[in-house]
Write a structure and sequence with these properties.
The chain is built from 9 helices and 10 strands. The chain is of the alpha/beta class. The protein has one domain: P-loop containing nucleotide triphosphate hydrolases (Rossmann fold, 3-Layer(aba) Sandwich), CATH 3.40.50. The chain has a 6-stranded mixed β-sheet, sandwiched between helices. It has a 4-stranded antiparallel β-sheet with strand order 2-1-4-5, with helices on one face. Helix 3 packs across helix 4 (110-123) and helix 3 packs parallel to helix 5.
Length: 251
């Protein structure tokens, strides 16, 4: 248990002429709750793909729960949960069938899968029509199934890419409570989100990326310098810039 949950040492990922992740070094201790922030195209989703074994780094070292992500990828995947950007569902299955598939992949018995699935669906207010395929679910329903799949097997480390996108306010609050409960139990969590108030009220640590580079890492108080000196939005804009003026010439 002395190894950190996540260790990145000078990690880069290059696609042609673009450096999607540029010399990223970061250590995340177990039990932390990290909000990974950045504007569109900053490298957040690429970073999550690198630490979950979906992409190989061009250079650098990635270790997850003390394991090398390249040489010990299968062992890593047994111990983590992932809610990817595209949700990664099998659209020709029903929601319960998909969770049964995921649970069996992790060695769970069918009775235990059914028990956990029922509890997850109840907590997330997910009531699909019997026999409906995932391809017919609404976007928000698919997000809930993807989140359920990420948590079903009781992972030690969970990666969530935009878990609150397309989710109604009531379910968003439930998801926050579930994640905060997991954090209190020692589960390490990493999420990306553009909803800064949710991140500010949920995550204990922040990592801010811009053009693939780490612009800030620490608590909100550590990053903003002095207590009470603005919230997360002000900090975010101060680190990556506020962008061009928002007015339009013809309006």
């Amino acid at each position: 248990m002395s190894e950190p949950a996540l260790f990145l040492d000078h990690v880069s990922k290059v696609f042609g002429a673009k450096r999607a992740v540029d010399d990223l070094s970061l250590t995340l201790e177990r039990g932390a709750f990290l909000g990974l922030l950045g504007r569109n195209g900053a490298g957040k989703s690429t970073t999550l793909k690198l630490v979950t074994g979906l992409l190989r780094p061009t250079s650098g070292t990635v270790r997850v729960l003390g394991l090398d992500i390249e040489s010990e990828a299968l062992a890593v995947k047994r111990r983590i949960g992932v809610m990817p950007e595209d949700m990664g569902l099998l659209d020709r299955l029903t929601g319960p069938q998909y969770l049964r598939f995921v649970g069996r992949m992790h060695g769970l018995e069918d009775a235990e899968i059914a028990r956990r699935q029922a509890e997850l669906f109840e907590k997330l207010d997910l009531r699909p029509e019997k026999g409906a395929l995932l391809c017919d679910y609404s976007y928000g329903m698919k997000k809930k199934v993807s989140l359920s799949a990420a948590l079903l097997h009781g992972p030690e480390l969970v990666f969530l890419d935009e878990p609150f996108e397309g989710i109604d306010p009531v379910t968003s609050r439930t998801i926050k409570e579930i994640l905060q409960s997991l954090s209190r139990k020692g589960v390490t969590l990493v999420l990306t989100s553009h909803i800064l108030p949710v991140v500010e009220s949920t995550c204990s640590l922040l990592a801010i990326l811009d053009e693939g580079r780490l612009k800030g890492f620490g608590t909100l108080e550590e990053l903003r310098g002095t207590p009470g000196d603005g919230g997360l939005e002000a900090l975010f804009l101060s680190l990556i810039g506020s962008g061009p003026e928002g007015s339009l010439s013809w309006l």
